[in-house]
Each structure stands twice: as structure tokens, then as C-alpha cells.
Amino acid sequence: MALEAGGIIILDYGSQTAQLIARRVRELSVYAVLLPYTATREQAQQAVPGFCGVILSGGPLSVYEANAPRLPDWVLESGVPVLGICYGMQLLTQRLGGKVAGAARREYGMTALEVACPVALFDGLDAAQTVWMSHADRIEQPPPGFDILATSASAPYAAIGDLERGLFGVQFHPEVIHTPHGPAMLRNFVIGVCQAQTGWTPENFIEATVASIRDQVGSGRVLLGMSGGVDSAVAGELIHRAVGDQLVPVFINHGMLRQGEADLVVQAARALDWDLVAVDATEEFLDALHGVTDPEQKRVIVGATFARVFEREAARLGTLDWLAQGTIYPDVIESAGTGRPGAERIKSHHNVGGLPDHLKTRLVEPLRDLFKDEVRAVGEHLGLPDSLVWRQPFPGPGLAVRCVGEVTWERLETLRAADAIFTGALDAAGLLRRGTAQAFAMLLPVRSVGVMGDNRTYDEVIVLRAVTTDDFMTADWARLPDDLLARVSSRIVNEVPGVNRVLYDISTKPPATIEWE
Length: 517
Ligand code: XMP
What we know:
Blueprint: E1 8-12, H1 18-26, E2 32-36, H2 41-47, E3 53-56, H3 73-77, E4 82-85, H4 87-95, E5 99-115, E6 128-141, E7 147-152, E8 159-162, E9 167-170, H5 182-193, H6 202-217, E10 222-226, H7 230-243, E11 247-253, H8 261-271, E12 277-280, H9 282-289, H10 295-316, E13 322-324, H11 329-336, H12 357-361, E14 363-364, H13 372-381, H14 386-389, H15 409-428, E15 438-452, E16 455-468, E17 476-477, H16 482-495, E18 499-504
Parallel strand pairs: 1-2, 1-3, 3-4, 4-9, 10-11, 10-13, 11-12, 13-14, 16-18
Antiparallel strand pairs: 5-6, 5-7, 7-8, 8-9, 15-16, 16-17
Helix pairs in contact: 6-7, 6-13, 7-13, 9-10, 15-16
Xanthosine-5'-monophosphate (XMP) binds near residues 350, 513 and 514.
């Protein structure tokens, strides 16, 4: 049976936390996909054959608005259990003959929940729970056949259910961390009520994916661009396990990688017994960037040079039948759009431009179904080194966009040394894997006066940037310990020649972005 069978469908009504619901369900080893609320029965069946439950996400609109997203007929017709969260609950209530009304004021934040009926969703949980609410509308009268399962001070119908039909609604958000027992509630629904299959594990994923790559690729050769990041490494190892040396991994070193990164890729490939094609194109990239300071121009030049070098290598390597990419599930969701009201977003895939057309249409994308944390779990099961599996995201144009101003080899070396001191200290403090989503150094195109010993200096400025974020669309600056920052600052000015000042960036995104260029 397919690994996806017997999983859960999540319909996206536009909530910021819709993706989180899918991640929480998958943490139960149950396959879940996020589909637009406009999905047809056939699309649902195709995405999750024999799905055994549906979750309706929250959303920003009111069910009374003229263009409010609706509940597709197939959801109730399919007879599987349904859990409506927030907007999803209101939708279910409205459809089944209950009443939804606007609340006098929005309820937002942590709320005390009193469980009235400790079965189904609340099986095994204490009567007093803390949950996270964020809603304006509320249920005034549940549909016929529904019982009150839980109440809160301002929401008498905080959770309702028709136990016989397996239909549930919760006004709060079980998927967010501020609902401490949310995972148990979702487990009760997914495993207890829906009786979903629990086969979605890294081991099973590896086995099924290796078999399907073998089927797809046959005797063809597969070109893979290695970036040094975790996605391309995991995709590569899955393909290597499937078809061995039919994998042709190409690593283009553009000279703007972090300290030790190029060696890491080469050593990892060797340890995995890959026949890596490593190309050092540093000079070509630096020549192309010579004298360029405009951020957009830098990006365009790096992109175009990358495509040129990659295509040249591909041509040199002879017939290549497939192009492998480390596309992951959030990219797929973003490209397709999941029906967020008024917010279709298209993200173009980078690195594909400039390649021969026949390769662009024959893609191998073994990670299309995985969230980033699942990619890491698969990477660990495949035995990839920790340093690769836990690598933080790194922009395609590399240090070109962190060397603010002109990109020269000397400036890159200064930046690399400072970055290594900063990230090394964070790693030692356990703040690189957890605690920061991204942390790095930047070099500014200004000099400042300083004093070292008895001498005046006029040297460069390093900025440290560390952020916390779930989705990289918004971010907060990381509150790093003072003593760590003090140590890092002192080491950088003492150990990195030409730097006499270190700043820490305390800007949020928005209005700033994570990178400076
Ligand atoms: P910003 O600076 O827009 O960055 O807040 C958001 C996230 O995207 C990464 N980033 C890139 N990743 N190619 C990439 O693959 C790029 O050109 C690129 N530019 C920014 C950035 O590091 C952060 O994680």
C-alpha cells in the first residue's frame, strides 16, 4: 500500500498556522497534506488515497461574508471524521444548522478551558486545560446532535462534537505551542477517532522513495546540483541508494561559501561513496562580480554565472536524462498556493534557469512531500553527518550578499573568519541547532576609527545577525546572552585582521529583512 494511504486531509482556509496542523499530524507518524479549500473529491483521493479524516483550518474571514470560503460537499459526504478548527468549526456549525455570531470583541491569547466531556478529543486529559484562542466570531448555538465538550469563560461552546458521526469543532488552536496539550488532542482525533495509519516514518519514507526513484529513473543518469545544504544532500543520498553511480552530483564552488563548507561537501560525498564532480569556479565568479556593489546586480550576476557554469559542466558530462532538485513541501505549497483568500503567491525555483529544456521537464524531486524537520530526520536516518543535516539555511548567492559593498577575496576571507567565530560560539552554546533559525556575520562597506594598543586604527565593521522564526516570512532578533556576544566581539577584533568594531543587529522582519542585501 502507498505510504500516503489512510492519512489525513487538511483544508486550508487561510490561517497562518495551517501548515503547522500538517506538521503536528505528521509528528504522529501519520501522513497529512494541506489542500486548498477548493480541492475536489478526486484531488483529495489522489493526494491521500483512502483518507480517513479531514481537518478544516482556521481562517481570517467570517462565514457570513459574501465571498467566504465554503465547505466542499465531499467532506461530509465521505463519511470520515471531521475536525473544524476556529473558522473550520464555524463553517461546520453553519453548514449543519447551528448558529454563528460575531463576538462583541475579539478573543486572543491564552485561555482557561474547562473540559465538560472527557472523551474523544479530550480522552485522558485533565478537566482544566490551557488553550490558545484567536477568533472574532463564535458559536451561539451548536448544530442538532452536537454536545458541548468544553467551555471557556467567554466561549460557552469552546469545543463541540457529534460523537456518533465523528464531527468535532474547537474554537481554539490545538496546533500551536501555546496549547500545551494540543498534540494530545490532535492525537486523540487522528489516531483515536480517525484510526489513521501510523506508517509515516523516516525508515518507511526512505524505503518507499528509493523504490519509486528506481522506477522513475530506470537506467537514466541523474544530474544533481549540490549546494552544501541539507536538502540537496538528502535528495542525493536517496537517489544514490536507488541508482548508485547513475547519480551525477555536481558541486560548483563559487568561492562565496562559509568557512570549511566546500571541504565539508567533498568529504561528505566521499564518505557516502558518491562520485562527486567538484568544480572550483571561484575566479570566474569573482571576475564577474568585480567592482559591483548593487545588491540586485550581484544576485543577477551570481545566478547567471551559476547557470553558465552548471550548463557547461552538464554538457561536458555527456547524456544526462534527469535533473534532481531538493524542492521541499513548503516550496510546493507556496508555488501552488493553497487557496489563502486573496493571497496566491508564486515562488520561482532558482537554479533551474539556464539549463537545457529537456532537463527542466524531467525532474526528480524526492523531497517534495517533506517539511524541513522531516528532511533532517531522513538525513539522520541516512547517516549523513550532523554538520550537514543541521546546517542553517544559506542564500543561493552566498556571501556575495553578506559582503555588503564590493566582493573581493580579501573581504570574503575577513567575513568567513568572523562568521566562523560567531557561529562556532553559538554552536558551543547549543544555539545553532535550536534557539536561532539563522545566525551569521556580515561585513559593512564602512570603516571606523578605533584604538589598538597605542595606535589609531581605521578598520572594517562586522555586523552579527541572529534571528528566530518559524517560516522566514517574519522574524525576530534573537536575544543572545550578553556574555556570549561580549566573547564573540572580543575574539573577532583580536583575531580577524582589519576589523575593529562589531555590531549586533536588533531589527525585526518586517520592516527589515533577514539578509541585508
Ligand atoms: P530575507 O533576507 O528576504 O531572507 O528576509 C529570507 C530567507 O531567504 C534566504 N535567502 C535566500 N535563499 N536564495 C536562497 O536560496 C536567495 O537568493 C536568497 N536570498 C535570501 C535568507 O537567507 C533567509 O533564510
